[in-house]
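re: that chain from earlier
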Amino acid sequence: MTTEHHPFILAAVGTDHHPFDRFVTWLDTWQQHNAECEVFIQRGTTKMVPHARSAQWLEPGELDAMMHRADAIVCHGGPSTIMEARQAGVVPVVIPRNPAMGEHVDEHQMRFSEFMAAKGAIHVAHDESELSQQLKGVVHGTAEHVVTGTPPETLARISAIVDDVMRRPARPVWQRRGGRS
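^ sequence. v structure.
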């Protein structure tokens, strides 16, 4: 007896306190029209949705396990979440937060997402139609969604920079703020 595979799509908005309504609405609408798929949304401070399963927050281990199980990952444009998705072996579909819509404080997610897309490391969805097309490509096997080979040079350089920063000793807060010397 064979069990039918239902594609699993994990969506994560991250931990920023700004709501990301269009993100969860787009994914919930997609779930409504694609019942053969399982969509799970980590929604943060964003409202609950009626069709897709969701949770406000996930423990890091739980998120990692879901990323490794996912057929597709849709995430905000946070560099950490993008790297976690790629580390799980999935080329994520990224919807960057837009500060003009009250979704963040600046355009860093938009800039980083375009940079990573130009390197072929992610797919970017600028609107609901693009998201739908990219998810259909993953579900039907016509879109690249699995990380293959070695990480691109850009990812290796970013990883080296982060590793270097993390190895540096932190100074006490009072020294950084011009306090006591």
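Residues 153-167 form the longest helix (15 residues).
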